[in-house]
Amino acid sequence: MNISKRNVTVFLDDPGQAVMELASVQTDALAGLSIYVQDTDDIGIWARIDRRDGRHIILIRWDYVLTIDFELGDTKAVSLQP
Fold first, then answer.
1. Whether the Cβ atoms of residue 82 and residue 75 lie closer than 8 Å to each other
2. How many C-beta neighbours within 10 Å does residue 36 have?
3. How many CB atoms lie under 10 A from the CB of residue 28?
4. At 71, phi and psi to the nearest 5?
5. Residue 10's closest CA among 73, 61, 56, 67?
6. Which of 8, 14, 21, 38 has the largest CB neighbor count within 10 A?
7. Dihedral of alpha carbons 58, 59, 63, 66, sign
8. What 8-state DSSP symbol labels residue 6?
9. Nearest Cα to 75, choosing from 18, 5, 10?
10. Are 47 and 38 in contact (CB under 8 A)?
11. What is the pLDDT of residues 29-71, one digit of tens each?
């Protein structure tokens, strides 16, 4: 599923939360991390976030992601036509 160009909530494991704290990104284990997904690749999610010093793009490695949540209305249907 393509999650690029949409707002999602990412739930990270403990090491992922620790890495986000090092990057000055506030996380909440129960509420997840709300982000805008700029793009994704084999390494992880390229997320746009706002910090006190401005807007940044960060990489969230797939290794740290437990699950991703987004509203059903935000899905993008992709189909193959014969």
1. no
2. 15
3. 11
4. -65, 145
5. 67
6. 8
7. positive
8. E
9. 5
10. yes
11. 788 999 999 999 999 999 999 888 899 999 999 999 999 998 8
CB 45 within 8 A of CB 34: no
Backbone angles phi, psi at 56, to 5 degrees: -135, 160
CA-closest candidate to residue 70, choices 50, 40, 43, 42: 40
CA dihedral 48, 38, 33, 62 (to 10 degrees): -120
Return the residue matching tokens 């506030």. 26
Query: How far apart, in whole angstroms, are the C-alpha atoms of residue 16 and residue 32?
Result: 11
Task: Specify the pTM.
Answer: 0.80
Q: Which two tokens stand for residue 63?
A: 């290794």
Question: Is 11 a residue whose pLDDT tops 90?
Answer: yes
